[in-house]
Amino acid sequence: MRSHVVIGVFALTLAACAATLHVDSDFDASVDFGHYRSFAWIREDPLIQSASSPARVSPLNQRRIKEAIESQLIAKGFTLSGDRAAADFVVSYTVGSRDKIDVVSYPAPFVWNGRWGGAYYGHELDVLPYREGQLAIDVFDGATHQPVWHGSATKRIGEADRQNAKPQIDAAVAAILARFPPPLPGEN
User: What CATH topology corresponds to 2-177?
Assistant: First the structure.
């Protein structure tokens, strides 16, 4: 009975981890985000990637990410500008993924009928490979060209996520940009 409870809790924990979106952000505290009214993309293709790593993001998902970012920023009251030089801030994004492994040890019952005692609880070991995906959004000041805000979301990516990426993209972008602009000092 105890082993069934442990395995049940283990399965629920894995299911919760698989669905969890971890969001983080950072910003330059010296910047007055209250003056930002308009934004533009950092360049025609705002996906930032290293030269040695070709993009593994489909053009459809690149468009979905760009549209989701625009939609969220416009909903926050910012205006999309076609002129990068005139925009208060410019935006870029980065997408990445990596294979990871969880190693989980949990008690497993093993009963020994020897003379020295009762039940012995050994350990079971599970090795669980998974893919972790990350979407990061960066904001640069339009006048100084300096980075002023960074937000990211990380999540385990399953086959269902790959098959139907739009809801995952929309949720990640909304969660990231919920932290932009950062609160003014004294606001929380």
Answer: Double Stranded RNA Binding Domain (3.30.160)
